[in-house]
Amino acid sequence: MHPDTAGTLFALGLLHNKKGEYDLALEYLKQTLDIARKKLGNQHPNTQRTFEIIAILYEQAGDEEKAAKYRAMLVEPEEDKQE
């Protein structure tokens, strides 16, 4: 798969979300997530951002159960350790 595929799918997902086409947006974002998880891992910032956006879309649709599933995959950022 070409490296730009995930970026293109992500952009399509955001576009369809903006147009109010939430089912299509979720379809593209889930494809993005599949690629990101395989290529980058769950903790990569791009993967995390996709988890977050999918969770938000499910929250907007009123599906708290699915939103919680994707929110559970989010990793808390490490705080800066200043001494």
Explain what this protein looks like in three dimensions:
This protein has 83 residues and is mostly helical. 67% of the residues lie in helices and 0% in strands. The chain is built from four helices and no strands. The radius of gyration is 14 Å and the shape is flat. Residues 79-83 have low confidence and may be disordered.
List keywords for this structure.
disordered C terminus, 83 residues, flat, mainly alpha
Question: What do the pLDDT scores average to?
Answer: 90
Helix content: 55-70%
Shape: flat
User: What class do helices, strands and sheet pairing give?
Assistant: mainly alpha
Which helices and strands appear, and what pairs or packs with what?
Elements (H helix, E strand, L loop, with lengths): L4 H14 L3 H18 L5 H16 L3 H8 L12
Helix pairs in contact: 1-2, 2-3, 3-4
Task: Summarize the entry for a quick read.
The protein is an all-alpha fold.
